[in-house]
Amino acid sequence: MRTTVFSTPLLTPLLRLIAIAILKLSGWKTVGKELEDHRFVLICAPHTSNWDFPLMLLVVLKLRLQVFWMGKESLFSFPLGALMKWLGGIPIDRSKSHNVVDETVRYYRQHKQLIVLIPPEGTRRKVKRWKTGFYHIANAAEVPIVLGFLDARKKESGIADYYHPSGELEKDMLEIRAFYAEKQGIRAENS
Question: Shortest CA distance to 63 belongs to which of 40, 89, 91?
């Protein structure tokens, strides 16, 4: 894959130190440890605010992960498009019918290490049902799902553990959603 903020020589270690300092000064605690295996789908919820993105960047830098994330295509237009790609972004055109799942699975097959972050809600608004693309990607690519989270109530953000999809979508989604049941987003009304 391409060079991003998480893999730029000389600059990334400096940014990691800055991220650690900002998290400490702002009172946010990072939960989780550096992971050995860098081949999984990372989900993060609840996604309720534009502040989730910079917080995610700080936490990912601190945990030494090289993450690519999916975002709506409008985020990648001029003049910020190149910056968003350097920040790990992959533009998704939500207005067209195309198979993002198959495309992402193909990337996993081509790369020994790949972490793709996908917000399961698909939006910052409160939703009743999560999108299941992340699950289908992990299941088809035969990679685990890592449960990333933020909890504004506790001022904690980070990663929990690997979740291995069983292929039983409804059962697995209930188990995954149960993990997030008590987590509160930055905008609590959207959690």
Answer: 40
Q: In the sheet where 29-31 sits, what is the strand order? A: 29-31, 156-163, 145-151, 39-45, 114-118, 67-72, 89-92
143-184 residue pLDDT tens: 999 999 999 999 999 999 899 999 999 999 999 999 999 999
Q: How far separated are the first and last CA of the chain, in Å rounded?
A: 33
pTM over 0.85, yes/no: yes
Q: Position 134: which residue type?
A: F
Give strand pairing partners of 114: 39
